[in-house]
Amino acid sequence: MENYDLAGRFQKAFEFFNQRLFADKLPCVVITTQRHRGANGYFAPDSYVQRHFDEDGDMLLPEYKVHEIAIMPDSMYNRTDRDVLSTLVHEMCHLKQQEYGSPSRHGYHNREWAEMMRMCGLQPTTLGRLDVRNPDLPAEEKQKDEGKETGQKVSHYIIPGGAFDEVCKELLAGGFTLNLQMLPQLVEKAKRNKLKYTCPQCGINAWAKQGIKLACGECMEKMECEMEDPDNDEQ
Fold this sequence. Notes:
- The protein is about 25% helix and about 15% strand.
- The protein has helices at about 5-20, 80-100, 110-120, 165-175; strands spanning about 30-35, 40-50, 65-70, 120-125, 155-160, 195-200, 205-210, 225.
């Protein structure tokens, strides 16, 4: 089976949004999939450091560092490609602020970042998609209040007709997909260790490994396995 390059798909989306939403001014980053409790993604500045050696193979001081954007695997499977890609752009706004703005303390979402989000067509809110202002959400699912735009934990919802909404439609209409349904099966379903045997006379059941010869203690009849071994020719 062909290897599934999820990071490559995110990199392609990063390049598209960088050009269309950020005037192609954001630097390259390392895009990873990581698990982090309570988040759909995160931005980590200077996460990767250049390995730099002299002619003798001795380590030299690095000349540069590279930022990281991570998307949580657990946040992908119950969300559309559009929603997952909005998380990517959310983190790209952190990247823009890191390069051209004034980020606050680690993890805090300040007003400068919130303005960058709105310019990209994402409404920052501590209530995320459940914010009462989100027009894409059914009324019965919405919270009664509006979320705050700043704080330690701030998510967002997509502004209909906003910049992200429009360019994302263009990306998806061009055939782009994260194609998560094509992920290879990495873990096979565990095989059953025991099978059910049934007495053809009285119907009593017993469980044992495949190939075991069992007889009913009441009827003295040979018990039949629910799944005969296809390689066993014994009658």
